[in-house]
Fold this sequence. Notes:
Helices cover 37% and strands 18% of the residues. The chain is α/β, with parallel strands linked by helices. The chain has two domains: 6-116, Four Helix Bundle (Hemerythrin (Met), subunit A), CATH 1.20.120; 127-315, Rossmann fold (3-Layer(aba) Sandwich), CATH 3.40.50. The strands form four sheets. A seven-stranded mixed β-sheet has the order 6-5-4-7-10-15-16, with helices on both faces. Strands 11-8-9-14 form a four-stranded mixed β-sheet, with helices on both faces. 48% of the residues are buried.
Amino acid sequence: MEVKAFYWKGDALELLDQRELPEKEVWLRLKDYREVAQAIRDMAVRGAPAIGCVAAYGFVLGVRSGEDPEKVYETLKNTRPTAYNLFWALDRMKKVFEEGKDIEAEARAIEEEDYQANKRMGEIGQSLIPHGARVLTHCNTGALATAGWGTALGVIRSAHYAGKNIFVWVDETRPYLQGSRLTAWELLRENIPHSIITDSTAGFLMKRGMVDCVIVGADRITKDYYVANKIGTYALSVLAKAHGIPFYVVAPKSTFDRGYTTEDSIVIEERSEREVKFIKGIPVAPENSPALHLAFDITPPENITAIITEEGIIKL
């Protein structure tokens, strides 16, 4: 049975609370667009494609409740500043509403299109993964981060089911541990061989010849192919380039922001220092020490071997 991050129930949105994984599976039932906005902001749901889908359903809940559509749109839009799929989905929903069309049907279409795009990216991308490859990935880019199947992890999943006998190095992905908490959980459910590593282990594994390719997702890609993704991605791209290792980015076309041309155009979300200084409420740093928590970084195109989309492979 495939992992699902959310289900639309017609009058409510059910979300798998990703903050509780892997210890327990807790489902949230949201019937108000403000609850949806809070769930996005607090990372109960995360991953750019999933955020876009969930925001679309949040728009449906808000408009149906009689709220001002512009207020609903702005509330949902202001939850996370970097992930482009959020803005892409909400702009699409707003346009359909203004045209007097069926907004629920549009939200369902956004979800279905993302799932099908992920499946196509998986099939296209797995052709780049050699038999027996040791693949390093960062953050969580699987079914939990999308409408299903996944982007970078979807390519890994497709390579596994193609019988390529791959092994996955899973960056823990500090400070929110999306790798060790979520990616490992998904891989374990599907019996895909893997091992969790600390983020700082990646370079030494490359030096020892234990990594054959790096594959990551994206939260926003500019017209000139600058890629905003989970913090730590840029460092991996530098390490991969230094060791002559292919570095692949996997993202649907809905992640491409054609209005942005350079890395300076991208707003990098800065989250609470508490997420750095605490893990699941347990302090791991001095209370009075300040912490900087940039949630994303930007990888330049010269560090990227190729970008895999549902329409094909863009070689850089």
